[in-house]
Design brief:
The chain has 358 residues and is an alpha+beta fold. It has a domain of 233 residues: 4-Layer Sandwich (Phosphatase 2c, domain 1), CATH 3.60.40.10. A hairpin with a 2-residue loop joins β8 and β9. The N terminus is likely disordered. This is protein-serine/threonine phosphatase.
Length: 358
């Protein structure tokens, strides 16, 4: 039995050892307060594991997306970021939720919806959507991690990437340097844990909103962020297409395949030229993010982060046109994933919509 299967089985045993605990269904509550960073980014510790009757400490990365209904203390321990509904069935999985911030001149609320694709593998998309207080500032943390060859790398990113960024000394003076260093350090940590995390990898698009006024977006791979500002969609990320970085890949001894009916792939395998993990192709890939910053003012309406399951079937303009029809960002995210399904997107589809209001 694999480590993940063992831990997943332990999760299910909680229903037998905790009072009223079960996989949650129903409507997601709204987050109405911010929580200190150390609590939001806390590990699932040995003492917590013992309290819940688990044999071993369980990293919260493994239970990403799970919510427990019943004892609030148990529930809090299992939520990696924010609040939300998670529903798991035999045929697939979904996750959804919403929340809002309270500080700054711009009011911010968000909603998200994740849907498993039509492929034969388990859900490999993970997300972060949350507000935290750090050194007197409110930070909105939003991310989509789209895994491949398993979900251990995106789960690791969900748990560690933002904490690594915020732990960089330069974050408050040179955020771009801090983000770049944290991306690279996180990738090295993933590679050093290959026996545990496997040979897979993940894309990432991260957004950090500082006091509702400054937006920093970084990405590797083809998960994308689009800002609607001044009535126009602004792509805040770069799709790392193997064809675009073909010369870099070839100079490192690799090649880019372009087979009929398929997308460009690094050595006929990976459809992106930058990613976390992917030990077998790492000598050809980069984990350095592209970074963009934008001021958030009265002309900024919304931000959409999504995995390529959405962008493969909808362009930037189509996405913001749908999203701006809804005042509720969760309703917008749900409509976007529904629309992608209607357009026969087969990949996992993950979407976060962040609404700004001056």
């Amino acid at each position: 039995m694999s480590t993940f299967e063992r831990l997943s089985r332990q999760i299910l045993e909680i229903d037998e050892v905790t009072t009223g605990a079960s996989l949650s269904t129903g409507t997601s509550p709204t987050t109405e307060s911010t929580t200190p960073l150390e609590e939001k980014l806390g590990f699932f510790t040995s003492s917590t594991a013992q309290t819940c009757g688990l044999r071993d400490p369980l990293p919260s990365t493994i239970v990403a997306g799970l919510e427990l209904r019943g004892n609030p203390e148990h529930m809090a321990r299992f939520c990696c970021f924010g609040t939300g509904l998670s529903e798991f069935t035999r045929n697939g999985s979904t996750a959804s939720g919403k929340g809002k911030g309270h500080q700054g001149q711009v009011k911010v609320c968000y909603g998200y919806n994740l849907v498993r694709g039509k492929t034969n593998h388990p859900m490999e998309d993970y997300h972060v959507a949350n507000f935290v207080e750090v050194k007197g500032s409110e930070l909105g943390l939003f991310a989509i991690f789209d895994g491949h060859l398993g979900d251990t790398v995106p789960a690791y990113l969900q748990k560690n990437l933002f904490s690594n960024i915020l732990n960089e000394e330069e974050f408050w003076t040179h955020p771009d340097r801090a983000i770049t260093k944290a991306y690279e350090k996180t990738d090295q940590a993933i590679l050093s844990h290959t026996p545990d995390l496997g040979q897979g990898g993940s894309t990432a698009v991260t957004a950090i909103l500082v006091n509702g006024r400054k937006l920093w977006v970084a990405n590797v791979g083809d998960s994308r962020a689009v800002l609607l500002k001044g009535g126009e969609p602004i792509q805040m990320s770069i799709d790392h297409d193997p064809n675009v970085e073909r010369s870099v890949i070839e100079n490192r001894g690799g090649f880019v395949s372009n087979m009929p009916g398929d997308c460009p792939r690094v050595c006929g395998q990976l459809a992106v030229s930058r990613a976390f993990g992917d030990r077998n192709l790492k000598s050809l890939l980069r984990s350095e993010p592209d970074i963009k910053v934008e001021n958030i003012d009265h002309t900024a309406e919304l931000l959409v982060l999504a995995s390529d399951g959405l962008w493969k079937v909808m362009n930037n303009q189509e996405v913001v046109d749908v999203a701006k029809r809804f005042k509720d960002p969760y309703a917008a995210a749900k409509q976007l994933t529904d629309e992608a399904l209607k357009r026969d997107s087969k990949d996992d589809i993950s979407c976060i919509v962040v609404r700004f209001k001056a």
